[in-house]
Design goal:
By secondary structure, this protein is of the alpha/beta class. The chain has one domain: Deoxyhypusine Synthase (3-Layer(aba) Sandwich), CATH 3.40.910.10. The protein is built from 15 helices and eleven strands. α10 packs across α12. The protein is globular and about 70 Å long. The mean pLDDT is 92.
Length: 365
């Protein structure tokens, strides 16, 4: 009789939780199965491999993460410590990030609050977060005033727009003595490019549209964003690096991040295999057909993820507000920091590289 196959991992035998625990203790020793185990794998993969110098990490932000305070608590430290090289975000996350840099408070509340009463009180609710309506008005006024500055009197990519906005927010939070709160300010100072795939789909976009009615010449160059992000991937690969995508949520930022590879392969005719590492924190199911729930194996069929990467990917089905603080604490404890890549200043160079490598698009049939 054959011996049974050996177990694939160590036995599940966590020690009692009867004393102080570090983030590493908690994750490594007590996240044994199910989505806790997937979160453990995400932490360990990022610390063991994505935090190495030869990996370029692109991070996506979807869902109301900055109103929940994840900017100052997690995202700013990740950027400051060099763990994130570029970001693709919804415009809403960046708009709400500005509240922190402007000293405009958001407050804990209840998901069961009476919204009619909140409306009468001049309060706005995001599930269990509330803010005064004036927070929106003052943030709108900041962006409209900013758009009158001479450097905005032309079309530009969203990375340049967010870099300039981050500079203004950094100056404002310093003047107000607020500390290191704004993600955009941190990204500006660390030269981490920040892209928005749908720049009109946020209050920042609405204020830019209002400025256009008054003749303001500012406009987003979305074509540049598509080419620039693909160029960042191509430049990394041609320099011998690997590329990793860390997806918080899903939605348009997920697709925009992953479409860099089909843009290289399918549209520009550049030989490429796909991203090397894939980590996603999501609550979306794959069986509804939505992109947010699409699995890494499905992404392989599109050329977005290299087939060799499938053993090095993790999908964890949980809330980002639970996962990201644990991931951040784990990275800081286990790796500390990484040398920043400062990709913002390389944007022109990667566009030139992309132009030089682009071939005629392949013809069907």
């Amino acid at each position: 009789m054959k011996n049974p196959s050996p177990p694939q991992g160590p036995p599940i035998a966590p020690p009692p939780m009867d004393g102080p625990l570090t983030a590493r203790d908690l994750v490594d020793n007590h996240f044994s199965a199910y989505n806790a185990a997937r979160l453990r794998e995400a932490c360990q993969l990022w610390a063991r491999r994505l935090a190495d110098d030869d990996v370029q990490v692109g991070l996506t932000l979807t869902g109301a993460l900055t109103p929940a305070g994840l900017g100052p608590s997690c995202l700013v430290p990740l950027v400051r410590r060099g763990f994130v090289d570029f970001i693709v975000s919804t415009g809403a996350n960046l708009y709400h990030d500005a509240h922190f840099g402007l000293g405009l408070a958001m407050h804990r509340s209840s998901p069961h609050a009476d919204d009619r009463k909140l409306r009468r009180q001049g309060l706005v609710r995001i599930y269990d977060v509330v803010m005064e309506y004036r927070v929106l008005l003052e943030t709108d006024a900041f962006f409209r005033q900013m758009l009158t500055a001479p450097e905005f009197a032309r079309p530009m990519g969203s990375a340049e727009f967010h870099y300039l906005a981050g500079r203004y927010l950094g100056q404002r939070q310093k003047l107000l003595g607020l500390g290191d709160l704004s993600l955009l300010a941190a990204c500006c100072q660390m030269e981490v490019p920040v892209y928005t795939p749908s720049p009109g789909d946020s209050s920042i976009g609405m204020n830019a549209a209002a400025a256009a009615l008054q003749g303001n010449p500012f406009a987003w160059d979305v074509h540049r964003d598509v080419n620039e992000t693909a160029g960042l991937i191509l430049a990394a690969k041609e320099s011998g690096q690997k590329t990793a995508v860390v997806i918080l949520g899903g939605g348009s930022p997920k697709n925009f991040m992953l479409q860099t590879e089909p843009h290289l392969q399918e549209v520009l005719g550049i030989a490429e295999k796909g991203h090397d590492f894939f980590v996603q924190i999501t609550d979306a199911r794959p069986d509804t057909g939505g992109l947010s729930g699409a699995t890494p194996s499905e992404a392989v069929s599109w050329g977005k993820i290299t087939p060799e990467a499938l053993p090095g990917n993790v999908v964890c089905y949980t809330d980002t507000t639970i996962a990201l603080p644990l991931i951040t604490a784990y990275l800081i404890e286990t790796r500390g920091r990484r040398e920043p890549k400062r990709l913002y200043q390389r944007r022109e160079a990667v566009l030139e590289l992309l132009r030089s490598r682009a071939a005629a698009p392949p013809q069907p049939g």
